[in-house]
């Protein structure tokens, strides 16, 4: 039988807030609700006492004013002596009982009482100073007198001519004011208790909701998770884009910003607003579905996956496939060059055998002529290209493509209209464009009789115009825009990855320079790709485009 481990003393004696978020939130909300209730009750009680005092003083003043307005009282004050059974005392007592006032005192100008609740006080002077009332002023006050603390109202008493002949003082017992205040407290506390109970119930419901949403984690656990998430998101070498339920970007890690070429300003915006219309925005917004979706952003080839989240949003991951695609294209080119070199090796062996035979037959003149023809053929190919295309990278590309085309049984022609000076601003970009167009054309005409690919590169001012024509089957009109879409291809994917990248890159590179890329039907059938690159050449002293009548062209 196992034994449970005793709780460490330090943990048993630990004081403070409970660790669970549910308990912490509940306690904090209960404390807030209780504090608000106590504060509201205090704020209500503080003015209530003053309000009751004011009401009592105004009531006393109103009784005094009503009493002073009776002309018979003023007449009796002037014509009768003060006495316990005099007319002034009787009228004052009648008014006191009718109004439930504590006292109604009527006095002359010397402050001598003509009426009082205690008959023995009649004839004596009042205990409080009546000067203000005798001076014609109406007075409201809380004061101490012979009958204790009371709310008082004092007004002058005037005769029929308006002369002040005395004053009327009316008191409301302060105990009645206090009783009203104490009587109001239980009801107030009942309301406060009800409000506290409602607040406690609301606090419990909110705490339960927070508990479910946070899976009852402690604040320290949530803080640690957030720190770990930030470290993970900004440390991984894979782009992460989080979108909320409205489709707006709410998170971008560092790698996503690098791959998409955007910054923190994209947060709070839709993919269309942040990236512009295109396939990348469609993939992130979920308008294109699938796994390992291919998209191109700038010069980067990206693989995107999008997964919905429980709150109605989504998380998209991006992987950079640019280097892999470049390596794949280089591998394809290398394989083609190897095949071409192998063919040239065989051809060279055949020529050497022919030369050896001519020498053994002592046909020396024929041998010299044969060697000159072979060397002249190779020299003509390189010279024709470099004469029309001054940029060394582009010229080398076309010389290599000519060798590959010859191995594949395709005639690669360099148009007589081709003239391109060595003033390219971005030669690597144009090499990518021409290489992809030529590869696409070679694939289109491969295996067909009389296959031919024609390349035309011209400079028009500072604009470069690139044309590649082939004698393949062509592209139907309804598919001429689809060919520039990432991932679209009519051929089986190669071993190293997906097809449908080259033409998409061509259009992206052209549009990045403010140009265009389009495909039409070539004369005599096949496809003709036209790429226009404004501001592709530097300087104003460029060679004008050479225009010659159409004529049969020599094979390069």
Automatic annotation (TrEMBL):
Gene3D superfamilies: 1.10.287.130, Histidine kinase-like ATPase, C-terminal domain, PAS domain
Record-listed E.C. numbers: 2.7.13.3
First-tier enzyme category under EC: transferase
GO biological process: regulation of DNA-templated transcription
Localization in the cell: Cell membrane
GO molecular function, one term: phosphorelay sensor kinase activity
Parts of the chain that traverse the membrane: 188-206
InterPro entries in alphabetical order: HATPase_C_sf (IPR036890), HATPase_dom (IPR003594), His_kinase_dom (IPR005467), PAS (IPR000014), PAS-like_dom_sf (IPR035965), PAS_fold (IPR013767), sCache_3 (IPR033463), Sensor-like_sf (IPR029151)
Catalytic activities: ATP + protein L-histidine = ADP + protein N-phospho-L-histidine
Membrane topology: Multi-pass membrane protein
An example Gene Ontology CC term for this record: plasma membrane
Pfam family, one: sCache_3_2
Record keyword Glycosyltransferase present: no
Domain Histidine kinase: 426-537
Major site of localization recorded for this protein: membrane
Name of the protein this chain belongs to: histidine kinase
């Amino acid at each position: 039988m196992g034994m449970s481990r005793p709780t460490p003393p330090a943990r048993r004696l630990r004081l403070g807030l409970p660790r669970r978020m549910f308990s912490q939130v509940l306690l904090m909300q209960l404390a807030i609700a209780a504090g608000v209730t106590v504060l509201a009750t205090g704020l209500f009680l503080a003015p209530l006492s003053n309000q009751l005092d004011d009401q009592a003083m105004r009531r006393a003043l109103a009784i005094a004013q009503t009493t002073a307005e009776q002309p018979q009282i003023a007449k009796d004050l002037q014509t009768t002596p003060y006495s316990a059974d005099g007319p002034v005392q009787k009228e004052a007592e009648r008014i006191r009982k009718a109004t439930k006032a504590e006292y109604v005192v009527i006095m002359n100008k010397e402050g001598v009482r003509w009426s009082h609740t205690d008959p023995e006080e009649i004839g004596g002077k009042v205990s409080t100073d009546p000067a203000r009332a005798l001076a014609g002023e109406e007075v409201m006050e809380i004061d101490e007198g012979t009958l204790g603390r009371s709310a008082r109202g004092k007004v002058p008493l005037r005769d029929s001519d308006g002369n002040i002949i005395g004053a009327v003082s009316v008191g409301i017992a302060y105990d009645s004011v206090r009783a009203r205040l104490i009587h109001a407290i239980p009801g107030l506390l009942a309301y406060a208790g009800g409000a506290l109970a409602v607040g406690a119930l609301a606090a419990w419901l909110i705490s339960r909701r927070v508990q479910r949403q946070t899976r009852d984690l402690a604040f320290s656990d949530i803080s640690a998770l957030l720190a770990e998430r930030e470290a993970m998101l900004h440390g991984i070498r894979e782009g992460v884009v989080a979108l909320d339920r409205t489709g707006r970007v709410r998170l971008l890690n560092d790698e996503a910003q690098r791959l998409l070429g955007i910054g923190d300003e994209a947060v709070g915006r839709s993919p269309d607003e942040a990236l512009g219309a295109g396939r990348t925005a469609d993939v992130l917004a979920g308008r294109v579905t699938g796994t390992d979706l291919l998209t191109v952003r700038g010069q980067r080839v990206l693989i995107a996956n999008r997964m919905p989240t429980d709150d109605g949003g989504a998380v998209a991951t991006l992987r950079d496939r640019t280097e892999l695609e470049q390596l794949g294209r280089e591998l394809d080119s290398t394989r083609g060059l190897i095949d071409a070199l192998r063919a040239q090796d065989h051809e060279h062996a055949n020529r050497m055998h022919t030369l050896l035979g001519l020498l053994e037959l002592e046909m020396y003149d024929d041998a010299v002529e044969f060697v000159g023809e072979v060397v002249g053929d190779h020299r003509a190919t390189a010279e024709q290209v470099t004469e029309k295309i001054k940029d060394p990278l582009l010229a080398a590309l076309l010389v290599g493509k000519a060798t590959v085309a010859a191995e594949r049984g395709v005639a690669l022609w360099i148009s007589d209209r081709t003239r391109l000076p060595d003033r390219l601003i971005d030669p690597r970009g144009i090499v990518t464009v021409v290489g992809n167009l030529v590869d696409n054309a070679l694939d289109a005409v491969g295996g067909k009789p009389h296959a031919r690919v024609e390349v035309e590169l011209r400079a028009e001012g500072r604009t470069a115009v690139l044309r590649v024509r082939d004698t393949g089957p062509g592209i139907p009109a309804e598919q001429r825009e689809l060919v520039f879409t990432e991932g679209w291809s009519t051929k089986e994917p190669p071993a190293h990855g997906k097809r449908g990248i080259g033409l998409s890159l061509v259009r992206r590179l052209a549009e990045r320079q403010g140009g265009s890329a389009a495909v039409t039907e070539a004369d005599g059938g096949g496809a003709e790709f036209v790429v226009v690159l404004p501001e592709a050449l530097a300087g104003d002293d460029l060679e004008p485009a050479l225009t010659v009548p159409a004529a049969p062209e020599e094979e390069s």
